[in-house]
Protein: histidine kinase
Amino acid sequence: MRQNLDYAALFAAVPSPCLAMTPDMTVVAVNQAYLDAHGRRREELLGRHVLDSCALDHADPVKQRALRNLEASLRRAEATGKPDVMAPHKCAMPISRSAHPTEGHHWSMINSPVLGSDGAVVLFVHRTEDMSAFLQQRRGSRSGVSRTGAGAAEMQELNEQVRKANTVAEQLLRRQRQFTADASHELRTPLTALRLQVEEAQLHRDDIDLPDLLNHLTADLDRLESIIDDLLLLATLEVDLDARLEEVNLTSLVEAVAARWTVSHDVRLDLEPAVTVEADSWQITRLLANLLDNARRHATRRLRVDLRRTGDHAELAVADDGQGVRPADRDRIFQRFVRLDTARSRDHGGAGLGLAIARDIASAHYGTLHVEDSADGGACFVLRIPLVS
Structure:
């Protein structure tokens, strides 16, 4: 079983200066990049107001204005549920940790809300970027470029880069919350079953069929391990994905994965040759296996897999001849732990994570996955991901 991710370590390793604060702007976490950039010590910030990161007097009108601007930015982020980018702000920072003199730096700041299960803000992630060198270069330029021309365009581009970088910490926090919610939701049932079996064995030791008990315990443990592995996969799909991308012959990959089902099922393939995509081959293999396993469980007699080029995308369709999916359920079926067939047991129907994993893998590869009617009357799952350009 793989170890749980250390999200605190991931936050600490984010290369951009970041801190986390409560809605009243009390700092509760700060990464090393922030400490290095602002010349502060961790104990100087934790438990204190975020503006104490600036070495300014509280009565200073500049700091009062900075406070109002920050509060306004946080309220906008709270109201919209989206990151808010502040205008560059000048703040005096120590030149080094050991130095008393300060120098003025201009900082671009982004405030991203972290929402709790009830939709209320529980934290803000505050990210800063030192723009001093950039602004100094702009002031020293003698090109005569209008502030509303190319200069504004460059500033907009820089803010966009800052916004994109900020989403790294935001995604990590969101996935941590989702992992916690999913784990508590789904692990409770097999854990309860394990406890009941053990307690029953303790009460009736003379009536125990030990081999049967161990078989049941092992099956429940296997199920727990499978659920945890799936949840960890969902939590880490996009981590370092770009570094794992390679050119993948999707045609060959589909043939290899489908071969596992052709021995026991009627699987018909209609594949264009040499359809190539840029992907993590392991994740795409998992996606294909999940779609084929889902089709197998619902098919009456046969499955069909089609692969073709459609514009600048590869389009893969996995269809069965079962009962299909009602239009009202076609989005819900991709939600985690959803099982449309309530009569199907958890042991035979799975944890309800297969299609959620498949769609998240498609999304991580800048693709889509949806379900529609198949020509045979069942369900047809259609995957579209970009071709290698």
